[in-house]
Amino acid sequence: MIAGFILVSGFVLFYNLGAKSLENHGYLRYAEIAREMIRSGEWVVPHYNGEIYIEKPPLLFWLMAIPSWFYGSVTPLIARLPSALSAWAGVVILFLWGRRVYGTVQAGIISGCLCLMSFQYFFEARNPKTDMLFCLMIVLSLYFFYLGYDTNRRKSYLFYGLSFFSMGLGTLTKGPVGIVIPIMIVAAFLLKERQIKILVSREFLFGWAVFAVTVLIWVTLFINKVGWEQSIALVKSTGVMTRRAPIYFYFLKICGQFFPVSLTLPFLFLHLWRKRGERLQQGESFLLTWFVLLFVLLTLYTFRASRYLLPVLPSLALMAGGMLRKRFLHVVIVFCLFVLIWHGVEWHRVGKNLVRSPGMVLVGELRPVLGGAPLSGYKLDVNTLEELNFYLDRVTLIVKEVGQLPGKKFILMPENAYRELQAKGQGPLHLLREFAYEKERLYLISTVD
Asked: What is the pLDDT of residue 353?
């Protein structure tokens, strides 16, 4: 059963993983950073379209770039591997955790199945973004903390160290939130259990040292390369958190994002309500603290996006797995049904010709004209530039003044920019070809000195 669960979950996650191109700009951005990493040889300071990129730490980019370096290029499959592997490791951890808390193999398998068949977990596992990797680090940090709390003191050093190491990797994935979330959950649980002194124990201090080493190695190397003043300026210039939504946002999203696992929520709350007169077992109490506290924190936080809910899901899957552990066959049938549905959705998307993204089509038409000549861009938006760089496998030079280019050069620009240059009488410019790109037209211009 255990081997079967691990193999089946791997097949579910990796089947057809590389069928689509990186059709979304959010997905292509991270792949482009990894591409620039392996082409430039600069692994410490991430770059995007030739500029330093500091909005996300580098762990995901490293995980994309390392296999790409061996293969020779970044492909859609390689770009998605970190998320798929994180999701696979996540369901295996949930199996181990569910078996430990509820005492049966069935509870562990059901917990993993519930997580894997939920809408958000399945599709985030196939997206080349930071969310699934970050979710895994949250799960690992809390799992190792629980093992350290639930074992003898000699082993607690190891488990707390692994917990803080996971927090460090989470911080290298998505910034300080990688330690803020697990520490707040751990502190709330220890306060509830009247064991708050553990936070200042020698084992925890050892964990803090592990965290500091894990994070500061990259931070020190980055500052050494970029400089202290520029590093501060780059951090101040980031504006990632811009997604606002009403305070009830997650109450609505949890139903759709966690479907069909969200259907168990009323029964789970009723199950826990009936046990209110009893003292919850230690493991279940920790899972409930995780679920409630993180959901409340996300709800109260000003910036909201549906994918931020993902680290809440494993706690729900574990508690629901414990409740449904005697319904093993029913859960397996539902799991098979929804896995088929989600893969059907994936096939539908592939069938809509998403493999031929606008950027891929544009570069395919550009290559015969350019040959090996360099390409410059004029007044191109960041998304167009990103696709050019990725599919041409080079960094396109951006020029601010077309007349400043000596000799013969190829310049790609939007139609309106070309009309403006014509109106100003700037030249000599020779129109070589027009290209349809998304909802606009791009002109390839040749300049002659």
From this structure: 56
Tokens found for residue 10: 């791997």
**CA–CA distance, 238 with 220 (Å, rounded to integer):** 19
Closest alpha carbon to 415 in 384, 375, 379, 366: 379
Look at residue 243 in the predicted model and tell me its pLDDT. 66
Q: From edge to edge, which strands make up the β-sheet containing 397-398?
A: 397-398, 375-377, 409-414, 440-447, 429-437
- Measured at the CA of 178, the angle between CA 196 and CA 124, to 5 degrees, comes to 130
Helix (H, G, I), strand (E, B) or coil at 1: coil
Here the tokens at position 330 are 């029913």
Q: In whole angstroms, what is the distance from residue 245 CA to residue 250 CA? A: 9
Q: Provide the phi-psi class of 444: left if phi over 0, else alpha when psi is between -120 and 50, else beta.
A: beta
Question: Is 64 in contact with 74 (CB distance < 8 Å)?
Answer: yes
**Residue with tokens 């965290």, as numbered in its chain:** 211
Structure token digits, residue 295:
């959901």
CA dihedral 237→243→246→252, nearest 10 degrees, is -150
Pairing state of beta strands 375-377 and 51-52? unpaired
- H-type alpha helices, 258-394: 265-274, 282-300, 313-323, 328-351, 358-370, 382-392
Q: If residue 219 lies in a helix (H) or strand (E), which one and from where to where?
A: helix 202-226
| pLDDT band for position 244 (cuts 50, 70, 90) | confident
Whole-structure pTM value: 0.92
Which domains does the chain possess? 2-351 (no CATH), 358-447 (3.40.190)
